[in-house]
Design a protein that fits this description.
Length: 214
């Protein structure tokens, strides 16, 4: 059974009603995250950097409850588990969408994600979107650009409220490796405080990638 937020008794009720009336209720920011430990771990263990980063990001998003809130008409549904819907580059330089279920253990997540990509390749990268589902985070990867800002195409009339996370080109800075991360969310469902919690949790997982991915 779906679980719904009690909006009338929600401490953010006023903020929810205020921003939910906006024509464009989304806001976002870009910031760097330190991936030094993660890069070392994926090299030593010969892991997929894409899968490892996606897993840690999705794991962090599950911890911050507001990232699991979605608009459903006049209500807010709370998802217990979310998948990652990510763009994947095709051999002909177009892109498709792939969908990766979340598993608490990285080994299980990577096995499933690897099979998703194998199936995607066998099916000649069919175009599939799952606009009817909201139990996910939308991801994109732009590994060619060390961006400092980013904006998204949006369907404002559909009631879309899914967070969008984009990872950019990582680079060396002093003795660290940094990666730009863009995050865009629906302001009726969360504020800058919650983005701060997500960035903090994601960074914590990146710093402890050797333990979490083992």
């Amino acid at each position: 059974m779906p679980r719904y937020l009690d909006i009338e008794n929600w401490k953010r009720r006023d903020q929810f009603n205020f921003f939910n009336a906006y024509d464009n209720p989304f806001f976002g920011l870009c910031a760097d995250v330190d991936i030094t430990v993660l890069r070392r771990q994926v090299k030593e263990q010969r892991l997929s950097f894409f899968f490892a980063t996606l897993f840690l990001s999705l794991k962090a998003a599950h911890v911050v409850e507001e990232f699991r809130y979605r608009l459903e008409g006049e209500r807010v549904v709370i998802h217990d588990r979310m998948m990652a819907g990510s763009t994947v580059l095709n051999a002909d330089d177009t892109f498709s969408f792939c969908y990766f279920d979340f598993f608490p253990r990285f080994r299980d997540f990577q096995e499933n994600a690897s099979e998703v990509l194998r199936q995607h390749a066998r099916d000649d990268h069919p175009w599939e979107d799952r606009d009817q589902r909201s139990d996910m985070i939308h991801y994109s990867v732009i590994p060619w650009i060390q961006f400092t800002s980013l904006s998204h195409a949006r369907k404002f009339k559909t009631g879309d409220s899914i967070p969008k996370i984009v990872m950019g080109k990582y680079y060396s800075k002093a003795d660290t490796i940094q990666m730009p991360l863009s995050l865009e969310v629906h302001h009726a469902l969360m504020d800058g405080f919650h983005l701060g919690r997500y960035f903090g949790k994601f960074q914590e997982y990146l710093h402890h990638a050797d333990e979490i991915l083992a």
